[in-house]
Amino acid sequence: MNQDQLKLAVAQAALDYIAPKLAANSVLGIGTGSTANFFIDGLAALKSQFKSAVASSEASAKRLRGHGILVQDLNDTNGLDLYIDGADETNANLELIKGGGAALTREKIVAAAAKEFVCIADESKQVETLGQFPLPVEVIPMAREYVARELSRLGGTPIYREGVITDNGGLILDVEGLSITAPCELERQINQITGVITNGLFALRPADILLLGTASGVKTLKASD
Ligand SMILES: O=C[C@H](O)[C@H](O)[C@H](O)COP(=O)(O)O
Q1: SS3 of residue 92 by DSSP
Q2: Are 176 and 81 in contact (CB under 8 A)?
Q3: Which GO terms describe its cellular component (predicted)?
Q4: Sheet holding 96-97: strands in order across?
């Protein structure tokens, strides 16, 4: 199976996982990226079985609406039942790096508001220690160089993702060369830097369940399985 087939398989597994949990008033948090797109396309078939979706990006909102799925503002909901999204890296504790598609801040908000976070990823995303994928950090534009200097002091090499402006008007620094052995601590530490909007570590709020696409089928993993 190629990577796209693995993404399609985990998207289908996620649809099978959520289907029995759906109710007429369910509001779903929906992520961003190529794996989430497979999920959104499959979700169209279930649209009569839930109320609405909150999207973690303008791109996902557009795709959801294209399938006739009602997209709500998070502020107009009373929290989310489920959040389904991909990741750039995951470790055995289901701590993640996200933000390869620059949607990290809205993703983190949607994850925070959700009762259950279902992560969908192919096996190329599974690592022992987070940090092989450069850690995205969203920053207020005027703070870009200041934040970059502070991130260098933490031992990483921040690279400005030129030409990218997030849905929030922020910029992205991708921090290379980190070996993240204490993800919660680093997540807090980076968020303390003035000018940082948020960083792509999802350790303080990790995934609750990981559907991992492998050559031998989709595995269902919980933290430290
Ligand atoms: O900002 C983007 C998100 O964090 C994505 O969930 C992440 O980059 C994974 O994307 P993909 O499913 O395309 O590998």
Answers
A1: coil
A2: no
A3: cytosol
A4: 89-90, 96-97, 201-202
Which pair of tokens denotes residue 181? Answer: 């052995």
* Reported pTM: 0.96
Catalytic residue among 58, 89, 95, 107: 107
Domain definitions of the chain by residue range: 3-126+204-221, 135-200
Query: Is residue 33 marked as binding?
Result: yes
Taking phi first (over 0 means left), then psi (-120 to 50 degrees means alpha), and beta for anything else, what does residue 68 get? left
pLDDT digits (tens, 9 = 90+) for 206-218: 999 999 999 999 9
Could you tell me if the CB of 100 is within 6 A of ligand 1?
yes
176 is catalytic: no
What's the CA gap between 63 and 145, in Å, rounded? 34
Q: Residues 6 or more apart from 85 whose CB is under 8 A from it?
A: 29, 30, 31, 32, 33, 35, 36, 56, 98, 107, 110, 111, 117, 118, 119, 120
What fold does the segment set 135-200 form as a domain? Answer: Alpha-Beta Plaits (3.30.70)
Q: In CATH terms, is domain 3-126+204-221 a member of 3.40.50.1000?
A: no
pLDDT tens digits for 16-53? 999 999 999 999 999 999 999 999 999 999 999 999 99
Cβ(205)–Cβ(117) below 8 Å: yes
What span, in angstroms and rounded, lies between the C-alpha atoms of 40 and 75? 22
Q: Which helix (H) or strand (E) holds 62?
A: helix 58-66
User: Other CB atoms closer than 10 Å to residue 165's CB: what's the count?
Assistant: 12
Q: Is the CB of 104 under 6 A from ligand 1?
A: yes
